[in-house]
Amino acid sequence: MKADLILRNCSELVTLAGPCPRKGNQMNDLAIIKNGSFAVKDGLFVAVGTESEIVSNYESETIIDASGCCVLPGFVDSHTHIIFAGDRSAEFEMRLQGATYEEIMANGGGILNTVNATRLASYEELYTQSAKRLKTMIKTGTTAFEMKSGYGLEANVEMKMLMVAKKLIHDFGVEAKTTFMGAHAIPKDIDRNDFVSLVKGEMLYVCKPYSDFIDVFCDKGAFTNEETEEIVKDSGLPVRLHADELADTGGASLAAKLGAVSADHLIGASNKGFEDMARSGTVATFLPGTSFFLGKPFARAKKAIELGCVVAIASDRNPGSCTIQSMPFVIGLACLKLGMTPAQAISAATINAAYSIRSHDRVGSIKKGKRADFVIYDVESYRMIPYELGVNHAKMTFIKGKEASWPD
User: Fold this and answer.
1) pLDDT tens-digit series, residues 260-278
2) How far apart are CA 319 and CA 141, in angstroms?
3) Residue range(s) of every CATH 3.20.20.140 domain in the chain
4) β-pairing, 394-399 with 374-377?
5) pLDDT digit string (tens) for 173-221?
6) What letter would DSSP give residue 2?
7) Upstream peptide bond of 328 is cis (omega within 30 degrees of 0)
8) Numbered ranges of CATH 2.30.40.10 in the chain
């Protein structure tokens, strides 16, 4: 049979075939095929197996010899804030001199700083700056994304962010979902109750056509549990939550109560919160890069796994609390700081992350019928990815069976 592309002879073909999502001990099984191979046609995997199985049944003018390399599905970064203008490098220096993230926010910095820059940026400027980040992330092996709004805090700017995200998804050909996060912070020039009404009213109305999910920053100093429930309950969108990052406010349990798809950060989450999430099927998404960047405690991912949660990891790429753009680096942090094994971290960054954005039927594993999004790493084993922290071993990144390229 004729294929558009055949990859052959890789040391490890890390397929992630099998259970979806993976829980507990399942996370340590990556369904690796030694000397693996696959065939691609029309942007999809059409056959996956051993070298002999594929080569004896398929032929192609494009054959990639991956000798000495491991091949993984593209990473899925299920929590990002990459659509924004400007930077906060000055605040980075302030924090190094002792200012806390909360102190910076209280003085008009933090999220509100980026809000001002994003409001002032034109659509074209916002697209150009965001595209640069997306390119960098793809180069390190990420091929699927979740992209949030949240730096507009007014209807037209939130919509502008989501429209930029949709254009990036189209132009780069990546699998991605968009999240409306008008409830990211409360502007200083508006009454709190009025802003909640604005988010669930006008903002949601104009942003919903461009949104796959809704998210709220539910935490100490942000939106209360009651405000969060009020904002999301009649939105008609699947729910994601920023929960229990700054304190245990019961955000994890609230996410479970709301039937949220995912609750993220969870640094302060209690055992009860994890148990509630395990029962509801809400994904526990951990963001070790944020703890690393801010010098804060790390979340208890091992406990969440032990208590039966579906666990994912993501970058939380944003301008203020985590500028890390490399999922391999995040995987290394998950091993070193969250206590996850390399296999658990890979599972959390692929099939479980895909499940958390409800794209698991298209990405997250190398399986017949799925998008041919895969990455060739110039190492023989997946264990080298977290082991050599900070090294980009991604040799070639493919999106729908074609090597990643950039729109003009």
Assistant:
1) 999 999 999 999 999 999 9
2) 21
3) 76-356
4) antiparallel
5) 999 999 999 999 999 889 999 999 999 999 999 999 999 999 999 999 9
6) B
7) no
8) 5-74+363-403
Using N-to-C axis directions, what is the helix angle for 251-258 and 225-232, rounded to 10°?
20
Total residues found in the chain within this entry: 408
CATH code for residues 5-74+363-403: 2.30.40.10
Of 82, 142, 176, the C-alpha closest to 313 is 142
Look at residue 339 and give its three-state secondary structure: coil
Strands of 1-149, DSSP E:
5-14, 32-41, 44-50, 63-65, 70-73, 75-77, 142-148
Residues 6+ apart with CB under 8 A from 277: 252, 253, 255, 256, 263, 283, 284, 304, 309
What the block records as the tokens of 30 is 């990556």
**Cα gap 296→251, rounded to integer Å:** 19
- Please provide the CATH number assigned to the domain covering 76-356: 3.20.20.140
DSSP structural state of residue 369: T
